[in-house]
């Protein structure tokens, strides 16, 4: 099936400091875990519940790996765009094991720093901060006249 591809987008908090390795060919590779969570109110008990999922992320893009190495730490909030890939490996006892990872490839995929770090407190001064929305952005991003005085005349 030509023309089909998988894309995964995850927004979450980094579980521990990323591991940066170098391949035999000299390419840097970053790997880390990313936690996403969902909260809801239990219908029977009325208590707040939370479920956390852990995702393994591997980055083969050297530019993105450089950003990860410099700015991403435990607790950082990041958005990852990559592909789900499952790989098979054999453990020390000879058992076949499978691991599913979100892979940021050499070409394609991305990582976005999303502001303040959670977990261990504080924010790194180099990390990007969330954008503040102004009134024009809340109105749809166009320059609307002030008040309710909208001119419905179309200029073409």
What this model shows, in words?
The chain is 9% helix and 41% strand. It has 156 residues and is mostly beta strands. It has a domain at 12-113: Nucleic acid-binding proteins (OB fold (Dihydrolipoamide Acetyltransferase, E2P)). It has a five-stranded mixed barrel with strand order 1-3-4-6-5. β5 (77-90) and β6 form a beta hairpin. It is globular and about 55 Å long. The N and C termini lie far apart (45 Å). Mean pLDDT is 79; it is low at 117-147.
Q: Which helices and strands appear, and what pairs or packs with what?
A:
Layout lengths: L7 E7 L4 E4 L5 E14 L6 E12 L2 H10 L5 E14 L5 E9 L5 E4 L21 H4 L18
Parallel strand pairs: 4-6
Antiparallel strand pairs: 1-3, 1-5, 2-3, 3-4, 5-6, 5-7
Tell me the number of helical segments per DSSP (H or I, 4 or more residues long): 2
CATH class of one domain: Mainly Beta
pLDDT below 50 for ≥5 consecutive residues: which ranges? 117-147
What CATH calls the topology of one domain is OB fold (Dihydrolipoamide Acetyltransferase, E2P)
Mean pLDDT: 79
Amount of beta strand? 35-45%
Strand order, sheet with most strands: 1-3-4-6-5
For CATH, the homologous superfamily of one domain is named as Nucleic acid-binding proteins
Helix fraction, binned, reads under 10%
Category by helix and strand content: mainly beta
Instruction: Round the Cα radius of gyration to an integer and report it.
Output: 21 Å
Globally, the shape reads globular
CATH architecture of one domain: Beta Barrel
Instruction: Calculate the terminal CA-CA distance, rounded to whole Å.
Output: 45 Å
Count the E strands. 7
* Most strands sheet: 5 strands, mixed, barrel
**What's the SSE pattern?**
EEEEHEEEH
């Amino acid at each position: 099936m030509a023309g089909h591809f998988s894309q995964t987008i995850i927004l979450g908090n980094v579980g521990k400091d990323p591991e940066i390795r170098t391949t035999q060919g000299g390419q840097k590779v970053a790997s880390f875990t990313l936690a996403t969570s969902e909260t809801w109110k239990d219908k029977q008990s009325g208590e707040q519940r939370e479920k956390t999922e852990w995702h393994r992320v591997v980055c083969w893009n050297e530019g993105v790996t450089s950003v990860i190495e410099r700015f991403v730490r435990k607790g950082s909030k990041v958005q990852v765009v990559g592909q789900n890939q499952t790989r098979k490996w054999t453990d020390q006892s000879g058992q076949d094991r499978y691991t599913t990872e979100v892979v940021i490839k050499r070409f394609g995929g991305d990582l976005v720093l999303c502001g303040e770090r959670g977990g261990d407190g504080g924010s790194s001064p180099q990390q990007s901060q969330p954008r503040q929305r102004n009134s024009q952005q809340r109105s749809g991003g166009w320059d609307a006249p002030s008040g309710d005085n909208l001119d419905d005349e179309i200029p073409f």
